[in-house]
Amino acid sequence: MTARILIIEDEALVALELRFVLEDLGHDVVGVAADSRQAEEIMTSGDVDLALVDIHLSDGPTGIELGRRLGQDHSVAVLFMTANPGMVRNGVAGTIGVLSKPTDERAVRTAVDYALGRRAGTPPPMAPPELQLFA
C-alpha cells in the first residue's frame, strides 16, 4: 500500500535516512519538517496519510502537541519516533504509538505497515514488538 508520509524530524541525517527507507518501500514522502511551523505548512499543501513525528524539534518539545493536532484535526495516522519515549508513555490522543530511537529499517517498515493498516481499518493482528501502542 503506497502512502503519503510526512517526516517531522529536526536531525537532517535521521530525516534523510527515514526518507530513503520510506521511498525504498514505495511510499511518497510529501515533505520533511524540522519544526512545527514547517509541518503545518506542508499539511496545508495536500493530503497526508501518516506522519512520523519526533518530540523534540528545532523549535523545542513541540512534537507532542503537533502530533495530537495532526491526529485529531487532520485525521492523519501519527507515530512518534523519539529517543525519549517516556515523554509519551501515557499516550497522546489521536495518535497510534511510539517507536524508540535509534531504530532500524525493519522496525520502521513494520510500524509503518501497522499504522497504515490501522488507518485503513485492516491492521495486522499484532503490532510489531518495537512499537509501543497507546490505549
What is the element layout, followed by pairings?
Blueprint: E1 4-8, H1 12-24, E2 28-33, H2 36-44, E3 50-53, H3 63-73, E4 77-82, E5 97-100, H4 105-120, E6 131-133
Parallel strand pairs: 1-2, 1-3, 3-4, 4-5
Antiparallel strand pairs: 5-6
How does this structure look, described?
The chain has 135 residues and is an alpha/beta fold. The chain is built from four helices and six strands. Strand 1 (4-8), helix 1 (12-24) and strand 2 form a beta-alpha-beta unit. The radius of gyration is 13 Å and the shape is globular. The model has no long low-confidence stretch (mean pLDDT 94).
Overall radius of gyration? 13 Å
Structural class: alpha/beta
Distance between the termini: 25 Å
Specify the helix fraction band. 25-40%
Q: How much of the residues is beta strand, in percent? A: 15-25%
Task: Describe, in short, the structure shown.
The protein has helices at 12-24, 36-44, 63-73, 105-120, and strands at residues 4-8, 28-33, 50-53, 77-82, 97-100, 131-133. It has 135 residues and is an alpha/beta fold.
